[in-house]
Amino acid sequence: MQLIRCPWCGPREEVEFHYGGQADVAYPGNPADLTDRQWAEFLFYRDNPKGPFAERWNHTVGCRRWFNAVRDTRTYEFLATYLVGEPPPAAVRPEVTG
């Protein structure tokens, strides 16, 4: 069993958490102006890097709060957790892709 560090509750077993997708995906400023293709890209296209990746997680069985984590997609190792709206720690900041 892997432990994930919740920023509010501390380390807990991974079964207490729910994955929420890529972190820091900005909602479109005016979604009504998007074409169908642009809307589909916003909804469904996400980065899929090999290595450190910033993700959203929810502590569903604990405090029910959302937070961000940097996880290595090669090893599944959690490198850091941090609050939504904060930048990832510099030591584990994933590369931003196009």
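[next item in queue]
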Amino acid sequence: MGIVLNHMIVPAADKTVSAEFLAGLLGLTAGEQAGPFIPVKINKDLTMDFDDRNGVRPGHYAFLVDDDTFDAMLDYLGDNPGIDYGSGLSGGWDRQVGAVGQGRTVYVQDPDGHSYELFTAVP
């Protein structure tokens, strides 16, 4: 099997709000509370568990996605003008899509300051 990342704990100010933010961005659904966590199942191998017990420590999470998922995410951002996003480190939150290799990339900031990077080609 090799090594497969199975789950991550994401620190949040409000685990429900943070889980629903990521789920909405990726076109997924936040799960029911499991112990102290609100899970978002990313795929068959990875779940992100949102936890609000220990305060926020903003992180960076990067996702390789297909073009359809990327386009749906851009539509979601267009429907939610209060969400900061941009083309990358040099462009900041310029509400633009960047390029990575032969693909596209965008960075999205969640309410807790986490940076979600979505790209369609491996950098």
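[queue empty]
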